[in-house]
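Dear support,

I submitted the protein below through the web form. The confirmation email said the job was done, but the results page showed an empty box. After a refresh the structure appeared. I'm attaching both so you can tell me whether what I see now is the final result or a partial one.
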Amino acid sequence: MIALRIRYTVLAVSLALLAGCGWTGETFYTAAEAQAAIAPGNYRTEESEHPAPDALVRVSVLPSGLTRFELTERGEAVAGFVPLGTDGRFSILWMTRFDGHDLPAAATLYALLERRPAGQYRIYVPDCGRDRADAVAAGATPNGPGGNADCVFHDRAGIEAGMRAYARHPFDGMDLFPVP
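What the results page shows now:
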């Protein structure tokens, strides 16, 4: 069942939502700040630690600046991206919609996008259990004990500091490979 879930790039984000162990906070960014971090087009996905059969994701940029992911079997997800640093390698991702449903602004899930060679990308979803030290050092507060807690950030400076620290040693990610 896990292998089936990880077939979809943005589904990694939903696993963090369902498990209640991600990096969350208020929505610190607006659609007006969103930048197109992923080139529009079709991508196949593969999860780096546990590869599963490829899935197709269609990526498009909405007029608002947000990015739409149309998943083969799951419906749509919408996310925003803002650059993390000036070199363009990393962007902070925040989810606004998943599986056709708007997500609550008070519990926005944050992730990290890495631009890779040859038009490829990798999405990392920090975990409050494994990546708690980076989150707490950046000002986040775990909202419960153990591995099922969210690391709740209180402002955008905190999420940016946490993501910069996490980017130095990202863990497992979901790859996006361009499809002609």
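Response: this is the final, complete result; the empty box was a page-load delay. The radius of gyration is 15 Å.
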